Amino acid sequence: MDTRRSDNHPWRRFKSALASVIAFISAAFVITPLGLVFFYLLVNGASSVNWAFFTKLPAPVGAPGGGMANAIVGSLELLAIAGIIGIPVGVLGGVYLAEYGSARINSILRFLADVLNGVPSITWGVVVYGLVVLRFKGFSAYAGGLALGLIMIPLIVRTTEEVILLVPNGYREASLALGVGRWKTIVHIVMKTASKGIITGILLALARVGGETAPLLFTAFGNRFWNHSLNQPIAALPLQVFTYAISPYDDWHRQAWAGALVLVTGIFCVNVLVRVLTRGRGASVV
Amino acid sequence: MKSSKFARKILATALLAGVTATASAQMMINGAGATFPYPIYSKWFDEYAKVDPSVRFNYQSIGSGGGQKQILAQTVDFGASDGPMSNENLAKAPSKLLHIPTVAGADVVAYNLPGNPTLKFDADTIAGIFLGHIKKWNDPKITALNPGVKLPDQEIVVVHRSDGSGTTYIWTDYLSKISPEWKTKVGTNTSVNWPTGIGGKGNEGVAGQIKQTPGALGYVELIYAIQNKMPYAEVKNAAGEFVKPTLESITAALATADIPDDFRFSMTNAPGKDAYPICGATWLLVYEQQKDAAKGKKVVEFLKWAINDGEKMAKDLDYAPLPENVQQRVLKRIDEIKM
Amino acid sequence: MEAATAPAIMRGEPLSAAAAMKRPSRFGDKAFEWLTLAMALTVAVLVILIGWQLWQGSLLAIRKFGFHFLTTSTWDPNAEEFGALPFIYGTLISSLIALLIAVPLSIATAAYLTELAPWWIRQPLASLIEMLAAIPSVILGLWGIFVMIPWLRDYPFPWLKRLFGWTPFFTGPIYGPSMLAGGIIIAVMILPIITSVSREILRSVPDLQREAAYGLGATRWEATRIAVLSYAKKGLFGAVILGLGRALGETMAVTMVIGNTPQIAASLFKPGYTLASVLANEFTEATSDIYLQALFEIGLVLFGVTILVNLLAQLLLRTITTTSATRAVQ
Predict the structure, then answer these.
(1) What is the CATH number of the domain that holds C184?
(2) Which end of chain C is more exposed for a tag (fewer CB within 10 A), N or C?
């Protein structure tokens, strides 16, 4: 940088200010459609979110007071199963890609993970249908959870890998120099440093599969009533929302909007809760 | 931190599974298929749960194709389809599969014009519009049928279904019957190669599209047109009368349609004077020889209830019930189901 | 980090104070490595599984149509003639539009969230954006029909036509449902994922980088550009690829606004159709064998398109980053 050219400063400052404005406008552009959708959900669905919604089973057309209690619980159960499958596999897989392996193998696996992220969710549903549902001759919560979990895996693998790669080498070296073993270094130092990023990846994946309908059509199937065994069909919020949204009835439409509202707000609460619980756990990178 | 999160998750799942895995005395019977009858089937199953609390019927609308596939694969206890199964598919069934018609509906011509006039169409004009020959609202063929209605000099925006559906099956079945050109060029199926128009997803998508686009015209199930308060047309039937699609005119079509013994029939362009020409029935698919005796018994009891009592609820939900003569034939068929 | 460069202590040579410390467990290290390897290999297993299932499900169709499937434009379930070309076109164009819109917006927003926004707004805003990744596709689609399309038809589209109507991309009548609308709604769907991941990437850039730039007299923008964005290039690219993945596989929301007409047209105002949409639309209702197999083949083609596009992206990546260290160096 040529310090003699002091007439450069105003132009550079202007560029900087312009960039700030553009960044701000971009953020506004990103928030706006999302905000509009949420607002639309609020306007159309808030009136149907009442106590009955959270406690009652779906009612047939014309009968008031129906709810989506079983769908809410069902979604939670499915997400739990999906999480058990998807989170450990995804996180540990991402760790491998960031910490071990050779450049060749890793770039192939990374590439394959990216490809998996582009598979439409209905294909996942069809694959799990062929694997599980046909074999056991029945739809089940297990199949649904499996389908969702599999969708989560490549997403979490990539996000985990990306944030772990950004942990400075100095941390690893310092830890190893102190005599801490390799795997302990990775788990307690590296992953801990990257924990906020890893959690973001997990939350994104959960949000993504939480709103998925297509993979559940052929696996979890849906259930008008309470599910009593994970081997049986189970209701899910996005499935119920979908069924109601494409129906002709206004009352069901409103319940669909309410369902979407509850879904999105629920994910938000989980997000906030996890953030609060893990506040300050991950060291900020200096 | 991570290990305790996992532990908590596992604990929560175990608790939930434990709490909900209390062995229920209720039997669960699963069915899958058509989306068209979903509202009335869900009403029936809810009412039937009061009649017989020991059994729960879980019906999910995954589509007619899905319903046929699942009953063939025997992953569900009964299927449902808006179109009769083809011979090819029926041959794949491990044992004899019965078609049980339940209710019927109609495809109406819905449109978006200023003033919401009630228009009249005949077979020729409808085929012409959907084949792309008639492009404008004030085309002489349309104005001839609708004297006194001010039709704008505007392009007709044709809206059809993009997803496979029984609604499309009924529509194309009708067009194939009344237009040789349609039959050779396009044909009958749940999804076809449309000569013109844009595709909307689902009845909901098409209805939404029509409502939002001035000058649009498309076909939707009667229920959707009624619930969305859309104007729809009277259509000239085979007997030469202009008939408005109503539950009565659908039932009239059912009464005069030619229904073969295996109940796989088409009721479009029915000959009756009061018949609405563009309608179709929906079927439940059950095996003649039930695998599970206890479940089979419940299924038969439900089917009998559906025809005897369930049919009475159809009208309130804008579905056309089966006429008396057909009901009797169906009951006889249900008696043939063996455990 | 390769074993060859591990510190002396790992090779078992004693050091003064450290000699008294417990030797790190070789078994633990090896076991952990095998465990993570197994988990990473599931990715490969899943790809093979999906490819296999799609292949198995479309054998009949492949045998019947052969290469023509990729080059013909007719999609006729009745005549049993199936060609995937217009869908391939639709998928590529709609995804391209979506990326062109979403990537600059997302990265700029991520930069805003990490560098410029007031500290108290950062996490809440980020959480809000992440939450919006959960909006069910069908809901977004319905919003698209009832809110987005009428607005597009009345304001931006005519404006685009006035300004760019002389190019082949913005000609023809404006119905509303169109390729452009499809691309826009995909953009809305992938904004949360690209923004969130980009934000994490930018947040992970060490402060030392920024401090160094400021120390040299850089303005805010210069520091961000030189110290943060170029440092995080590879990670940001990864975020974009994640968004691209979602864009290629998006079904429900797209199918409600894209018009679902299998055709290849230059004008973005004309309706289009994507591979994922036709698969989702017709799969549950396909009744004949060949029809179903053709749809499976569409799934296979989409799989192939995803692989090709990702390959292209990798090539692109080579040109914008150096091939040296992939690790953050302090």
Answers:
(1) 1.10.3720.10
(2) C
The SS3 assignment for C247 reads helix
Query: pLDDT tens digits, residue range A124-152?
Result: 988 898 888 888 888 899 999 999 999 99
Any CB–CB contact under 8 A between A217 and chain C?
Answer: yes
Taking the Cβ of residue B65 and every Cβ of chain C, the question of whether any pair is shorter than 8 Å is answered with: yes
**What's the gap in Å between the CA of A210 and the closest CA on chain B?**
16
Confidence (pLDDT) at B14: 53
Give the domain range for residue C148. Answer: 65-327
Residue numbers in C near A176 (CB within 8 A) = 6-7, 9-10
> Which percentage of chain C shows pLDDT scores above 90?
23
The answer to whether B164 contacts C173, with C-beta atoms less than 8 Å apart, is no
Q: What is the ipTM of this complex?
A: 0.84
Is any Cβ of chain C less than 8 angstroms from the Cβ of B31? no
Give the domain ranges of chain A.
Answer: 69-238
Q: Pick from C34, C105, C125, C135 the residue to mutate for testing the A interface (most A CBs within 10 Å).
A: C135
Structure tokens at B237: 């039937």
Provide the number of structural domains found in chain C. 1
pLDDT of residue C119: 86
Q: What is the mean pLDDT of residues C257-263?
A: 89
Name the helix (H) or strand (E) containing C241: helix C233-249
Best-predicted range by mean pLDDT among A253-262, B273-282, C123-132, C247-256? Answer: B273-282
CA angle in degrees (0–180, nearest 5) for B122-B126-B127: 115
Q: What is the mean pLDDT of residues C111-134?
A: 83
Residues 6+ apart with CB under 8 A from C213: C222, C223, C226, C227
Band (pLDDT 50/70/90 cuts) for residue C325 is very low
Tell me the chain A residues in contact with residue C302 when contact means C-beta distances shorter than 8 Å.
118-120, 123
The listed CATH number (1.20.1440.230, 1.10.3720.10, 3.30.930.10, 1.25.40.10) that belongs to domain A69-238: 1.10.3720.10
**How large a percentage of chain A has pLDDT more than 70?**
95
Using a CB-CB distance cutoff of 8 angstroms, which residues of chain A are in contact with residue B226?
A: 248
Interface of B with A in 6-25 (CB under 8 A): 6, 9-10, 12-13, 16-17, 20-24
